[in-house]
Design goal:
Arc Repressor Mutant, subunit A; 2 domains; Tetracycline Repressor, domain 2; 205 residues; elongated; mainly alpha
Amino acid sequence: MLTAALKRRSTPQQARSRATMERVLQASADLLHEVGVDGFNTNLLAERAGVGVRAIYRYFPNKLAILVAMAEQLRETEHAWIGDLRALASGGDWRAAVDQSIDGYYRAASTHRGYAALRAASQAVPELRAIDMASSQTLQDELATGLTGLGVSLAPEHLNALCHVIIESANRILDIALQSPPEAADLLVRELKHMIVNLLADYVE
């Protein structure tokens, strides 16, 4: 649960206020992309968003609360990039579905301004890490359901361990890919897909 120091101070109700909030969050992504977490501050953000610093503090108590809001806002977006892993058991080619999930995530994540910097911060800032862990748990649960639908028959603790290995490995390798030059990133993504497909083949077939 977030402490008061990390929660939005208020939720805008009027259209104009909501537009200001969205402008601040969009400017946050642009600024984060350019200066990273260490260079990110509310003064620069206010200048970039074209608002007064007071307007930012009306909604957020500090810069960490802004980063938390960005991470929470992206949770559903990330899920859309990946797709529902329960659909692995939908009757199609599960290998192609694995490739599609990884490719869909990486294509979107690599072009989303500020996302790579926010991902890097999620490994260093406990509050952001907690949000990342919650997202990973949702993916692990969906993957477990999808694998069960594919006929994988494992004890619950074994299935959970398998899904944990896959999701956490994917997270770390994709994080590295997001920080790498395009050619190196493409190789990392390709090897990740190969690794996951080969691992799952031992259980699905």
